[in-house]
Each structure stands twice: as C-alpha cells, then as structure tokens.
Amino acid sequence: MTDSRESPGTGLGAPLVVLEDVNKHFGDLHVLKDINLTVHEGEVVVVIGPSGSGKSTLCRTINRLESYESGTITIHGDELPSEGKALAKLRADVGMVFQSFNLFSHKTILENVTLGPIKVRRKKAAEAKQRAMELLKRVGVDHQAEKYPAQLSGGQQQRVAIARSLAMDPTVMLFDEPTSALDPEMINEVLDVMTSLAKSGMTMIVVTHEMGFARKAADRVVFMSDGAIVEENTPEEFFTNPQSDRAKDFLGKLL
Ligand code: ADP
Ligand code: MG
Fold it and tell me: Residues 141, 160: contact at Cβ < 8 Å?
C-alpha cells in the first residue's frame, strides 16, 4: 500500500500515514468523502478549511477515536486496529494534541508527562522522569514540573500537553487547533514549540487557522471543504495561487 508519489515538500521520507478512499458518515451526514492523503516521514501537513468541513473528524479517524465505513488507513503499512492492545498501541504511537489541553488536573505537571510512559510503555519511573524533565525543558516549562495544571497559564498547559504526547515517542503527531483556546499573547509560545518540533523532523498533521505557522512550517497545505480534500499544495502555491473557488473564498475571508 505504498505510494511512490513525491510530495511537493522537500527532504521527505517514505509514506507513513496513508488514507485511501476513506468515507465516514454521522447518520445522514457524509462527513469524510473519499479522502486520499499520504503523509510522509518527516512531513508537516497543515489542514485548513471552514468550520464543519471535517478536519477534526479526519484527525480523530486517524487516531481511531472515530470509526470509518469504507477505505483504508495505514500507518507504516499496517492497517489501523479497531480494538484491544493493538488499538492502545496505536493511540500511543499517534500522539494527539487537542484544543483543550486535557491534562489530569489532580496530577502534577511531571506526573502528567510520566504517566503514559510508565503505564503504557512500561518504562521505569526514574527513566520516565528523566525523559519527562528533558521534554519539559524542551517546551520551556521544566521549572513548573511540581505544579498542578491549574497553576499554569493556558500556553504553558498546552506546551505540557505537547511534552506529554512526545513522551510516548510517537510515530506521528496530530494537532487539532492547538492554539484556538488560547489568549492571543500565548499563541506564539505554542506555535514556536510546534515549529521547532517540525524542524526536528517529526511527522505532523496540524489543523490550524494560524496561516503564519502554515507558511513557515508546512511542507504541504491540505484544504478541506464539506468533507472532501478540495486542494493540496505547497504553502507558497496555495496561499498565492489557490485553484478552487472554495479555497479562494476561504482565504478571502481571512484577510
Ligand atoms: P471541523 O473540525 O472542520 O470544524 P468536524 O470534523 O468537527 O469539522 O465536523 C464535521 C461535521 O460533522 C460537522 O457538520 C459536525 O457538526 C459533524 N459532526 C462532528 N462530530 C459529530 C458527531 N459526533 N456526531 C454527529 N455529527 C458530528
Ligand atoms: Mg474542528
């Protein structure tokens, strides 16, 4: 199920996440329509589109938080499992960062980051702690390790959520509007962490309205509308020369 197409980006590896003809309904609503998407190792794909176009559902389907009725989704050539231990492993391999940070409020920042590696990855506590502190340092919140989530700002909490995902050594990271719930002054501190993660070679699928981030960090922009991928291109081409009326309309409204 490999795909030899070269992505428009540069320096990309083999296909990692591959969706072929994926369809999903919520009752009568056809929410994902014949989705075909290949994300290569090390590639950063930014997904944009109007509200309700199916971006969150796409992310949730890749993480198997949602089922789908037809088509295939593979990660490293393996079809997504639907249950059991294999599903738990998939959830660990595919990191996801949501709009709401979803940290465990009764656990410290450090515990939030070590919990998954200890419980799911069976790491020893000391090893998990050392790695967690490295990651908290990387996202700039190592000084807050002993605090509780409510004692941190939204931007700090979202950076912890990113560190927590990274602690599982994910194969790919999904971000679903990670800065939408943040006060404006905190958006950049989160985007900076994501940009540096992108530069480090992490494979990323990012749903965002932050076009500056898309221009700077994306290898490819995927534009969704009404459940379908309408257009995909390099950010430069997409932003300067959108092809479809729907993309032109969407970009026009952002100005
Ligand atoms: P986006 O993230 O692009 O805003 P979503 O993937 O959240 O879009 O939603 C796509 C469409 O599916 C919307 O019309 C939304 O109302 C609908 N939808 C999302 N989740 C559910 C659900 N659990 N049950 C029914 N409809 C849903
Ligand atoms: Mg959404």
Answer: yes
Is residue 131 assigned to a domain?
yes
> How many distinct structural domains can be found in the chain?
1
Task: Examine the predicted complex and report whether its ipTM is higher than 0.95.
Answer: yes
Query: Ligand 1 pocket, 209 CB below 6 A?
Result: no
Please give the pLDDT value at position 1. 40
Nearest of 180, 181, 109, 179 to residue 150 by alpha carbon: 109
Please report the pLDDT score of residue 7 as a whole number. 46
Q: How many whole angstroms from 146 Cα to the centroid of ligand 1?
A: 37
Predicted local distance difference test score (pLDDT) of residue 144? 97
In a domain, 229, yes or no: no
- H/E element holding 184? helix 184-199
Indicate which residue's Cα is closest to atom 14 of ligand 1.
Answer: 52
pLDDT at 2: 41
Domain limits for position 135: 103-170
pLDDT at 91: 85
